Each structure stands twice: as C-alpha cells, then as structure tokens.
Amino acid sequence: CKTMGLEALPARPATIALYLTDLTRRGRRPSTLDMKLAAIAHAHRSRGHAWTRDPGVSSVRSGIRREVGVAPEQKSAVVVEELATLVGVLGGSLAELRDRSLLTMGFFGAFRRSELVALNVADLERSRDGLTVKVRRSKGDQEGEGAVKGIPYASNAALCPVRALEAWLAAAAITEGPLFRCVDRHGRVHAKALEGRSVARIVQRTATLAGVDSANLAGHSLRAGFATSAARKGKSLDAIMRQTLHKSPQVARSYIRHAQVFDDNAATGIA
Predict the structure, then answer these.
(1) Domain boundaries, the chain
(2) Cβ(29)–Cβ(19) below 8 Å
(3) For the segment 175-213, what is each residue's pLDDT rounded down to a tens digit?
(4) How big is the CA angle at 221 (ends 182 and 96), to the nearest 5 degrees?
(5) From 1.25.40.10, 2.30.180.10, 3.10.580.10, 1.10.443.10, which CATH number describes the 80-259 domain?
(6) Is 29 a catalytic residue?
(7) What is the residue-averaged pLDDT of the chain?
(8) Which residue is catalytic, options 98, 112, 149, 181?
(9) In degrees rounded to 5, what are phi and psi of residue 228?
(10) Is 181 a catalytic residue?
(11) Which of 44, 74, 109, 227 could make a disulfide contact with 255, Cβ separation 3.0–4.6 Å?
C-alpha cells in the first residue's frame, strides 16, 4: 500500500481486490489469500474499523479460485510396501526402536500426527487380538469425547505395530506417561513427548536412509498410506473411516479415489 500510495487502514475494497490479484500473480495459493483476508479483517476490527464482506472483493476472490483452482497440495502416501522398506533400514538402537514403533503405529492406526504424539501408556488396553487405543482428542472431536481404535497384530512380524510398540516400551523402560518420547544423541530417553512436527522428521529421515524420495513426505503420509493400502485391499469405506476417524465420507473417498485410479481404467489396454 505504501509503495502505491494507498491507504492500508481502513482499506478500500478496491485496494483489497488489487492486493489479492497481486498475490495471485506472485504465485500465492487461494488458501494463502484466505489467510491474508482473515488477517486484514482482524486488523480492521482490532483497530475499531468497520469490516463487512464486500461483494466486489468476494467476486474477485471467487474468480481467482475458479481460475487457479483450490485443490490442496497432496502429500505422498507411504503405502504398506514402502512402509516395509522404511522399517527395514532401522536397527536396534533406542531411537530406531522408537521410530519403528512410531511408523507402524502411525500407519496401522491411521493416526493424525497430533493424535500419535498425544498417546499415553494409560490409553492402551492389551488383548489377544492386539491393542485397543483410546484417542482422547482428535481434529474431528474438539469436545474431547474421545474415540477408540483397534490395532491388530500383523501377520508380518517385521511390520507388526503391537510387537514394535512392546519392544520400544520395554527397551526404554516406559511404564507410564507419553508413548513416543525424545531420545537424545547420547541415547537417553526423556520424559517429554515428541512434538507433532517430529513425526514428519522421522518419516523423512527414515525415507532418506531407505533411499526413498522424501521431498513430498510428511507425518500425514502414514495416515494417507493406510487409507490407500486398505482401499487397494478392498476394505469398505465404513471400515476405513472407523480407523481414520474421518467425519466426512467425501474426504475419506478422496484417498480411495487416488488408490483406485488405475482399477478398471478405461485407458488400460487401448494401445
């Protein structure tokens, strides 16, 4: 605004529309524009200026979304075959035992990274079939009602989340408190739980060790990989949603559509 001699506060609708257009020209995504608009609205209200939705600004915003598209950037899914590759490079150090447990639990439990690092020993209940895990709070459960997930034993012992978790807890002598904790470079296990962003780092670091491209991997890749792998195995949408705790069938189907893009594909076999 200063460069062009325009007043920032209060900003005229035409100024805001021009700002959105300029951001788009510089490659900003529609989601970024929405955050900028929210920040502008907050700045006006916090300084006592009136703020209402202007039809002209809304029209420009809608036009940008139609022109650019609003599909979110998808992180790559770590499917079960890739999970085996990642887990296969991990040894027996405390950090590696933790990472193996985190990767397999994250995958088979279809946990969001925030759910995964929030798990405590008290959230586990052991049975003949595996583990029952209490998710105390999730993205779709902001009231904190909680949910339960079943983590079964895997027939492939190398990928079994139950065995991997038991091995980690025993080696780290963890009997209460957070499941997944910081391990320092001296091999000391701390009482503090990992942060959510640590899940992405572990996924990316292990992928790099395994020779897998980690550029588009994140903590979400485990959850997406579970849904993708389950869909390929013919699991029902309802069964997948029970594990992912998706509230929206539409969101869950987005994983399944991606997994089945080559199933009965009309282009297959034409040439």
Answers:
(1) 13-68, 80-259
(2) no
(3) 999 999 999 999 999 999 999 999 999 999 999 999 998
(4) 35
(5) 1.10.443.10
(6) no
(7) 87
(8) 112
(9) -65, -50
(10) no
(11) 227
Question: In which residue are the tokens 């029952």 written?
Answer: 132
pLDDT in tens, 19-71: 888 888 787 777 788 888 888 888 888 888 887 778 888 888 888 777 766 55
44 included as an active-site residue: no
What pLDDT digit, counting tens, does each position of 229-251 carry?
A: 998 888 999 999 999 998 888 88
Q: What is the pTM of this model?
A: 0.72
